[in-house]
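The records we work with from here on pair a chain with its fold. Taken together, the tokens spell out the fold as the letters spell out the chain. The record below shows the convention in full.
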Amino acid sequence: MSFVAETGSNHALVMDGAPEAGGRNVAPRPMELLLAGTGGCSAFDVVLILKKGRHLVRGCEVSLQAERAEQDPRVFTRIHFHFRVTGTQLRREAVARAIELSAEKYCSASIMLGKTAEITHDFEIVEV
């Protein structure tokens, strides 16, 4: 139950399943990768939007917590994004707007998952 995917950009990605499903637990599950990719997509947007607005952003971490349906297909039903944006003199309004733009316009992954999941966001700013 281990698989290697080759992406369109020619990178290899290993996936595995839980031992009870025949996997060896040596790599992330496919659904974990889907969620991680969504977090990365959204964080990328937030940083890019802030930098284009000439805000002094130094970093962005995003933690996602998700719930899945009990029955097959076990789609995501709730996803919460918590952003930790690091920078100098970042305005709350600018960070909130960058997250909103990502969620509503730019992040294809989260917009797609929003078809089955209730998606919420919050954030904190760390001054450096």
